Amino acid sequence: MRMQFRSALVAATIALAGCTAPAGPAFVEPVTPPRSSPVTFPGLLPSAANRGANRYIFQIHGIHTLDRQQWAYSLFTPILHSGYQQNAGMWKDAPLSQGQYISGQGLTCKDNPQCYFDHFGQYRRDVFTNTGTGDTVTVYSYFWRDDLWQITGPYLKNDIDANTIYGFGDRSWFNALIKVQLMDEGLSDAAGYLSSIGPLEREGVETVLCAMLAEAIGSDPGKPGKGCLQALGPKIDTLDSKQVEFNFLSHSLGSRMLYDVISVEDSDTKAQLTDERLRARIFLAGHARTQFMAANQLPLLAVSGVSVSPDNPASQPRSKGPRFSLIELRRRFQSNNWGKLSVVSFQDPDDILGFKASDATLGDTPKDVDIIDILHRNTPQILFSIAWPTDAHDNELFQQNSLEMILCGAKADSSGYLTPGTCLPSR
């Protein structure tokens, strides 16, 4: 019924006036001071100017992501269409270092009546090979929403039902639809992450990052869960930056999760990590080439990372921009062997839950890091007054222009207009 109402509204509006602002194109947001050189960045896939490395991609989803298979293949399918063959992986649990019980008044965790979790989330490993060039890309995908929803779902079920079965009475269909999709099934994920459940989600992320890093350095991943990155640190040999590279594709809330794990501080205690404990994280940051964010809430959630102290603030050691920990790690541990890191953030101007990523950075960025904010429409704007909110948020992989930039990179002209690059042909 919701889809019928939505289709009727869009069809009627288009019939009256048509689209006043179609989806796309993409522009680079201006910065102060202006950049000294044209904006350019590589994509997730090899190009003529960017190939030869042992290439890994880590992807993590965001809010309101209901189907793990559909989400994963939103990246897999365009890779396959780019001339790659897939050695498909299987979903498996992301183990925790120690099993945990979740308790709450009346909480039964759906089909898990004891609310016991020895894992949190699922992940898979997929290998893609270009049939013409032989280039290989390994993708690690982490999906956390199903396990979170075992806990948050029971609290929200009644409200979802009340706002799904509606007529023309006390609930307007438009507000009810937005309530379900953006609040009940959207921001509730962020509320869950900022609660005591957050450490379990971060532990799942760390497990998958350890699996990816261990493969890259040719090591056994060891015991999964919290602390596995620290344990991998001593196993890291000195590798030339051209031998391995990491690329990240994070959606919405997933950007915050990723940065909290690859951080200069312990996400639970907020204690600064020693250089030795940071060794694996430094390696990930130093060998990172791209970080694509398809929508993010970093400025909105940044206040959760500030500290409150009765002491003189000047006496408290603080890092700059902890939410951009890939950048902070590069700032603290400079190396001439590291290549450039491009942090590319997409924002639809009508996305209620999207923000300009650079607004969360209140410190200078290292010279080998470029933060690029891109303004890109994911859905048409009607009559200069409305764009469908759920289509505006985190829809970059379903728009051809932004998809091509994520896969193959892009370059901006003097006006800031971005043109997608070219990936290696399959033949």
Task: Give an overview of the whole structure.
With 427 residues, this protein is of the alpha/beta class. It has one domain (23-156, 177-302, 319-420). It contains twelve helices and 15 strands. It has helices at residues 2-17, 68-81, 145-164, 173-193, 198-217, 228-232, 253-261, 279-286, 298-301, 325-332, 389-392, 400-408, and strands at 19-21, 26-28, 40-41, 54-60, 84-87, 92-101, 116-130, 136-143, 244-251, 288-294, 341-347, 369-376, 381-382, 410-412, 418-420. The strands form three sheets. Strands 2, 4, 5, 6, 7, 8, 9, 10, 11 and 12 form a ten-stranded mixed sheet that branches. Helix 5 crosses helix 7 (253-261). It is globular. The N and C termini lie far apart (46 Å).
Strand proportion: 15-25%
Outline = globular
- Beta strand count: 15
For the terminal residues, how far apart are their CA atoms?
46 Å
Listing every helix as H and every strand as E from the N terminus to the C terminus, the arrangement reads HEEEEHEEEEHHHHEHHEHHEEEHHEE
Number of DSSP helices? 12
> Biggest sheet, open or closed, and with what strands and sense?
10 strands, mixed
- Which stretches are low in confidence, meaning pLDDT under 50 for 5 or more residues running? 12-18
**Whole-number radius of gyration?**
22 Å
How many structural domains are formed by the residues?
A: 1
Mean pLDDT: 85
> How helical, in percent, are the residues?
25-40%
Structural classification: alpha/beta
